[in-house]
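Whiteboard transcription, Tuesday session. T.W. wrote the structure tokens on the left side:
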């Protein structure tokens, strides 16, 4: 049966050779062989009888490789080729306007290895100045990626949330805003979502359903029923609409929000009281206990209301029983933000525009942190450019006393853990975000030593995107996050919560531990344009999932408190270095 995949294997080799820049005649030979063999019906017999060379276009070397694959299930030539050229580059061939030469340029110049990394490179405008690309090509590539993503089974929360809010608004015009909610993993602010659960309360099921399936966002109707209707949206995600009676809405809202584990805990509490809890209501025998809201359902169970973001069975039920739930962060608590790029490096907007937009959003300050000199691919700042930017920031701060720009840098962490500038430059920054942008494949111990040494640097203020992950695209580098959080606590380092919906890094599952260790976080958008500043919203959702309160987050502080905090951190680190 595996012989049926031989044409596919040969085509894969051809594409890898083409990406590698191999002799075009050699590449064409593999493409031709794949086409020829895809039309051969007696391929098994020809291989068994060693008669492949009778086919025009199949030479001795190629026939031996095919026989090797038929016998062993492997082709050593392909395995060796994969060591030279990452196999993941093949998925880029599916994107319109990306031929092998361009893919090779993306890999050689930017280190792009898969669709997710390419999407992020487009987001940071890395293709604009790349030879053979430009703004128009970058936009075409971005649209091609969007098309491919529609057919995935998993979706970034940041891609789906705006669509979910739009649908909620549409349905509110029919059922009333108080009777419509998006539930499931979207309401819980999970970083990855697989479907969309929409709950509506109303007596006219037919009217709501007809309106739902006729919305412009709907691509295909999959199922219609008395209480549930399933569709596929144009974004590719499946959406389930459930229509319940208004009396059922509070319990249905809790049930369809989940998580499954959280619901199991709640049902167990109800059972101990002799009750039954399900999506239809809270029952004593056959009598529904009246609950006008989710809050009343929780209260009936003897619990404080638990915010949806916390409902992951990670200690929230016990905390609600004992009155220990945190007063978790809100978006209004954020007073400013850090890790913002400008057109000094790879941002698309000027320093002035980024500051103006931050002020328009109601922020009191912004921390500019363009790339450091080693990030040549991103226009990293040379020392003389750094000083020129400082002068510009000083001039703006002098003109506008109601808003403050903090001087920062996103310094590359070198393979040995050192930062990217000498001390005479580093000491001039208000803050330094230390980040890894290369060498992701280091061994775990070496990576941990590299990051910890960077945190020990007396000028490191924050650890940027701590794992380097790109959601649905690239796993984080190998390191023990508990060990890194411990090191941050020892070295007075703030952990960045990178709010980009492509990253959302640090993972929310570690935020409670950071909180317990006294490690402050900073919710930073990693913005490369004015629109990126709004992505702080996504970081706040993750911070809420991680039980973060105002006191745990740096950028809930005002300007003067930020200045005091940054000075206190630097003084503590300097004292630590001098007393080793």
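and on the right, the sequence the group agreed on:
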């Amino acid at each position: 049966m595996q012989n049926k995949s031989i044409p596919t294997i040969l085509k894969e080799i051809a594409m890898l050779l083409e990406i590698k820049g191999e002799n075009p005649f050699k590449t064409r030979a593999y493409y031709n062989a794949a086409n020829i063999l895809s039309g051969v019906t007696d391929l098994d017999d020809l291989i068994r009888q060693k008669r492949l060379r009778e086919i025009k276009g199949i030479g001795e070397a190629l026939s031996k490789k095919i026989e090797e694959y038929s016998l062993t299930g492997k082709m050593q030539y392909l395995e060796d080729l994969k060591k030279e050229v990452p196999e993941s580059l093949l998925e880029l061939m599916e994107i319109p306007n990306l031929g092998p030469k361009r893919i090779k340029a993306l890999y050689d110049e930017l280190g792009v290895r898969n669709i997710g990394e390419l999407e992020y490179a487009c987001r940071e405008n890395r293709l604009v100045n790349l030879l053979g690309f430009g703004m128009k090509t970058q936009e075409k590539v971005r649209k091609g990626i969007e098309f491919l993503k529609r057919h995935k089974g998993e979706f970034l929360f940041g891609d789906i949330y705006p669509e979910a809010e739009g649908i909620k608004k549409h349905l509110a015009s029919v059922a009333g805003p108080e009777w419509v909610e998006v539930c499931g993993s979207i309401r819980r602010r999970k970083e990855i979502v697989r479907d969309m659960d929409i709950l509506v309360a109303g007596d006219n099921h037919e009217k709501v359903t007809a309106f739902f399936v006729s919305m412009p966002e709907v691509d295909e109707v999959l199922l219609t029923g008395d209480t549930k209707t399933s569709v596929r949206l144009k974004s590719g995600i499946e959406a389930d609409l459930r229509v319940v009676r208004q009396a059922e809405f509070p319990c249905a809202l809790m049930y369809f929000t989940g998580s499954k584990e959280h619901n199991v805990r709640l049902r167990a509490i109800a059972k101990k009281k002799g009750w039954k809890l399900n999506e239809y209501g809270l029952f004593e025998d056959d009598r529904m206990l009246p609950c006008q809201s989710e809050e009343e359902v929780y209260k009936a169970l003897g619990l404080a209301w638990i915010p949806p973001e916390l409902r992951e069975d990670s200690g929230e039920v016990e905390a609600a029983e004992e009155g220990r739930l945190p007063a978790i962060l809100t978006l209004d608590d954020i007073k400013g933000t850090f890790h913002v790029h400008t057109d000094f490096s790879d941002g698309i907007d000027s320093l002035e525009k980024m500051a103006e937009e931050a002020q328009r959003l109601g922020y009191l300050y912004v921390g500019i942190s363009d790339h450091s000199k080693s990030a040549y691919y991103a226009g990293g700042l040379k020392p003389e450019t750094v000083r020129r930017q400082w002068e510009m920031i000083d001039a703006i701060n002098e003109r506008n006393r109601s808003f403050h720009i903090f001087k920062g840098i996103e310094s590359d962490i070198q393979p040995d853990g050192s930062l990217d500038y000498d001390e005479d430059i580093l000491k001039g920054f208000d803050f330094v975000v230390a980040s890894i942008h290369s060498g992701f494949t280091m061994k775990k111990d070496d990576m941990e030593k590299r990051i910890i040494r960077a945190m020990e640097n007396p000028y490191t203020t924050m650890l940027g995107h701590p794992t380097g992950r790109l959601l649905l695209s690239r796993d984080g580098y190998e390191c023990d996050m508990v060990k890194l959080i411990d090191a941050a606590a020892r070295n007075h380092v703030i952990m960045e919560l990178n709010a980009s919906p492509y990253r959302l890094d640090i993972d929310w599952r570690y935020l409670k531990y950071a909180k317990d260790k006294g490690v402050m976080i900073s919710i930073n958008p990693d913005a490369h344009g004015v629109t990126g500043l709004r992505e702080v919203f996504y970081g706040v959702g993750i911070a809420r999932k991680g039980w973060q309160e105002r006191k745990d987050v740096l950028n809930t502080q005002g300007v003067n408190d930020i200045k005091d905090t940054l000075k206190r951190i630097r003084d503590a680190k300097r004292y630590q270095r001098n007393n080793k």
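Someone added at the bottom: The mean pLDDT is 93.
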